[in-house]
Amino acid sequence: MNDISKIFPETGAWEKLLALNNPCDLNTVLGKSLIDPVNDFFQKPGKNIRPRLVELGYRLAFDSDPVEIPEEDIQKLKLAGHIVELIHGGSLIVDDIQDGSHVRRNAPTFHLQHGLPVALNAGNWLYFWALGQIKELKLSNDSTQKLLDIILGLMIRAHFGQAVDLGTRIDEISQSDVEKTCYASMELKTGTLLCLALQLGAAVSNREPAMDLNALGNKLGFMLQLFDDFGNFAEEKKSSPSKRYEDLYNRRPTWAWAQASKLDSDTYSDFLSAIRQLPNEDQLEQWILQHEFINLMWLEARGSLTRARDEWRNQLHLSHPFALETLLDLCSLLEKSYVKKT
């Protein structure tokens, strides 16, 4: 069983947890409609990027990299990693509902397996259960309140980002505005969740980080989205439903749209024409081949990653060697995880 399940309510704990005036046996119904589906969701392994960022935020809060982390802080960081994963998991469940997605981690999406009402409730519950776990970090009252304020602010930003994502038909925006709109959406959504992970780690250290963790989180989020988009485009066509062109079909602002908008107006017009033929992919795939779009995306993604690596090496190689190693490992993970075909 996934270790994260240990912070879910235990069987038999409902009466005390909910303090009902008329106690009843809720184990079966809450197991079926909430805990069992959520537990099953977390059995499917992700890339474990966000929990690693929690430790990274902890290390970067110090003036120099701590060689050893005290056992007490190790346990707190582990819980903080679970908190981030709960929030991220809730966002994936809700995102898949809003996007009408069919596949998540090579399996049917949560709402297709358990129904939309159960999925929506589970996604929201994960947000609130995560916030409730903050007190278990055993920080000072001031630190706990500060951390809750930070997390609340970041989650509000993420929902603003989702509003941009859902409310924008990117094909109806002028070509000159597409790139800026896409980058704003990426920063508010993907970047914000990574900022949250870094801030949780810094809070465990009980120090005020000198480094701008939000800037780092936004940069990492940007690159995560780059490679996610590239991976979707480079994925070979499958007979089963995939996420290959989902964001294009839904006209959502993504990095792929931003890249296409940099091309000349006639080429971009042809791109829009191909998009409007979806779900028939023939015209779009012809356009992608004609303009070597996958190679274009690959070069841009690799270039961004190389520049980030160089910047972090210059900035951290003396003061934070362990943190630098984590960042470089995450960069390699992005390449390996998202690049299906090069």
UniProtKB/TrEMBL annotation:
The keyword Magnesium applies. One of its GO terms (molecular function) is metal ion binding. Keywords: Magnesium, Metal-binding, Transferase. GO terms for biological process: isoprenoid biosynthetic process. Belongs to the FPP/GGPP synthase family. This is Polyprenyl synthetase family protein. It comes from Peredibacter starrii.
